[in-house]
Automatic annotation (TrEMBL):
Annotated EC: 2.1.1.-
Membrane topology qualifier: Single-pass type II membrane protein
Similarity section: Belongs to the methyltransferase superfamily.
Protein name in UniProt: Methyltransferase
Taxonomy, superkingdom: Eukaryota
Compartments it resides in: Endomembrane system; Membrane
Sorted UniProt keywords: Glycoprotein, Membrane, Methyltransferase, Signal-anchor, Transferase, Transmembrane, Transmembrane helix
Length: 604
């Protein structure tokens, strides 16, 4: 049949169908893009850190099949003695596989699943229970960290010295051979904010044996001492053996595992980081993790070059150029010289956005402002980029002068909590109160908490650092770990004046074996068992836990028996306890790792 225009009805029908089909395709694409955007921006809605809520979900879906997860008993063999200081993701045996440019071989390179060790890391021959805090700050057993490199190479700087069966720590360093206390006294005169509770958190890049961080503990400042696994053999291991917070890490091609605007102060004492090279990306990373108004302290080259250059194997002209380049870069990054005397120079990060506004309006500025596609807090395997992360202008209370002073800030709801889905001052207050009750119950179950038997503590999947806050008056410190797959609450941990790091528990943690006295987890297996093999997580816990150390495992009843079975295969002793409210769907395991010595000399 033809119409008046002479065209067939089929042709007319085909044309009219194309239009709605095209519209429908566009609409579907738009809806798909919209929903995808919601999922990506709000993915933390699908991840909960509340163990009880997750446990309810697990219980409702699995009760019909079984009351608890059951697995066969297992016994793990001993690794050979050559693995006594094994750090899986920073393994010197693998360094040759990676590039030397910017020391990328020292970054995290975790083994694939088929190369993971399924054996127990042995302690060194002659290992002893670590010396108790605070005595441990000044001495440790030689056989626990049997390395002489620093002792031989740095003896004239008083880093440490070996006497009989012990290493002693006189408190010296490259830039403070006469003692760290005198060095910090001089620093406090330049930065009065170190004495009144304004400065609470710090990071020490290239920390040596962490004497600077150790001294600051008595001054109310909590420091993350950072160093790579390098030719110093065991900087971080020495630090943790002393009972001082530390973590393996290096500023190379990836961001450090911390959120933006977190530390109150950063420190480098002749840490040999080439701050002005590679477009200044290393200094830009320090800028990112320092909160507005925070301080960067540098001692060593090129500071005081006029008096020091002869001892640096260089010329005064070269050092003058280095200093001028450093000052130019810092000025371009909105730092100002705050104070300087002798070998110590202090710069302060801008506390407002006036300087950054000028940056944004200058197309030729270098380093440039980072574009909006780069999330400021993204810091798990995130590449460094040569640009400046500008603080969020919407946040008015994250600057150093705006957060409450310590200790008031510990129990004050951080402004950034409103950036988290469901976060508010009331949820913060509820979490704070909840952990006070839980910590009191934990102390009944494990009386060692609060004594000198427990010093180094890790909360393996914290939310706001509630457990750490609840035990703040005990002689211990807590490394607060926030999952790289969870909602970004680590910034709130730092805003409270606590310390922590991002981590993915499907991989090994950035520390040496036998470095923590207590590991605490709250629903970790419930939340992560769909991604991470429980066996490998528990083996990693065994690696980093000290002999005779403890684990508090708060879990859904569904997983408790399986955890107990694996723990038994690791030579742990565990007992099941009720929670503070006696909830059946959730239990607490109190476990202790036994001290044993290697009988296996063969490679495994």
């Amino acid at each position: 049949m033809k119409h008046k225009d002479g065209k067939t009805g089929y042709q007319q029908d085909k044309r009219t169908r194309v239009v709605p089909m095209t519209i429908m395709f566009i609409v579907l694409c738009g809806v798909s893009f919209y929903l995808g955007g919601i999922f990506c921006s709000e993915k933390h809605r699908f991840y909960t850190k509340n163990a009880q809520d997750v446990a309810k979900a697990v219980q409702s879906t699995k009760n019909s099949a079984a009351s608890s997860l059951q697995i066969k008993s297992v016994t793990f063999p001993q690794c050979s003695s050559e693995y006594q200081d094994y750090t899986p993701c920073t393994d010197p045996r693998k360094w040759k596989k990676y590039g030397v440019h910017r020391l990328t071989f020292m970054e995290r390179h975790c083994p694939p699943v088929f190369e993971r060790k399924e054996c127990l890391i042995p302690p060194p021959d002659g290992y002893k229970v670590p010396i108790r805090w605070p005595k441990s700050r000044d001495e440790c057993w030689y056989r626990n960290v049997p390395y002489d490199w620093i002792n031989k190479q740095k003896s004239n700087q008083n880093w440490l010295r070996k006497e009989g069966e012990k290493f002693l720590f006189p408190g010296g360093g490259t830039m403070f051979p006469r003692g760290v206390s005198e060095y910090v006294d001089s620093m406090q005169k330049l930065i009065p904010e170190m004495t009144d509770g304004t400065v609470r958190t710090a990071i020490d890049t290239g920390c040596g044996v962490a004497s600077w961080g150790g001294d600051l503990l008595d001054r109310g400042i909590l420091t993350v001492s950072l160093a790579p696994r390098d030719n110093h053999e065991a900087q971080v291991q020495f630090a943790l053996e002393r009972g001082i917070p530390a973590i393996l890490g290096i500023i190379s091609t990836q961001r450090l595992p911390f959120p933006s605007n977190s530390f109150d102060m950063a420190h480098c004492s002749r840490c040999l980081i080439p701050w002005t090279e590679f477009g200044g990306v290393y200094l830009q990373e320090i800028h990112r993790i320092l909160r507005p108004g925070g301080f960067w302290v540098l001692s060593g080259p090129p500071v005081n070059y006029k008096n020091r250059w002869r001892g640096w194997n260089t010329t005064i002209e070269e050092q003058k150029t280095d200093y001028n380049n450093l000052q130019k870069l810092l000025t371009a990054m909105c730092f100002k010289l705050y104070n300087q005397k002798d070998d110590i120079a202090v710069w302060q990060k801008a506390s407002d956005n006036n300087c950054y506004s000028k940056l944004a309006n200058n197309a030729d500025a270098y380093p440039p402002k980072c574009d909006d596609s780069l999330e400021p807090d993204s810091a798990w395997y995130t590449p460094l980029r040569p640009c400046i992360v500008v603080p969020n202008q919407k946040l008015k209370k994250t600057g150093l002068k705006d957060v409450p002073k310590w200790p008031e800030r510990l129990h004050t709801a951080p402004e950034r909590i409103t950036e988290i889905h469901g976060g508010s001052a009331s949820t913060f207050k509820h979490d704070d109160s909840k952990w006070k009750v839980r910590a009191k119950h934990y102390k009944k179950l494990l009386p060692a908490i609060g004594t000198d038997r427990i010093r180094n503590v890790m909360d393996m999947n914290t939310v706001y650092g509630g457990f750490a806050a609840a035990v703040i008056n005990d002689p211990l410190w807590v490394m607060n770990v926030v999952s790289s797959y969870a909602a970004n609450t680590l910034a709130m941990v730092f805003d409270r004046g606590l310390i922590g790091t991002y981590h993915d528990w499907c991989e090994a943690f950035s520390t040496y074996p036998r470095t923590y006295d207590l590991l605490h987890l709250d629903g970790l297996f419930t939340a992560e068992s769909h991604r991470c093999d429980m066996k490998y997580v528990l083996l990693e816990m065994d690696r980093i836990l000290r002999p005779n150390g403890y684990a508090i495992i708060r879990e859904s009843s569904y997983f408790v028996d399986a955890v107990t079975t694996i723990a038994k295969g690791m030579k742990w002793g565990c007992r099941k306890e009720d929670t503070e409210y006696g909830i059946e769907m959730e239990k607490i395991l109190i476990c202790q790792k036994k001290l044993w010595y290697s009988s296996n000399k063969s490679s495994r």
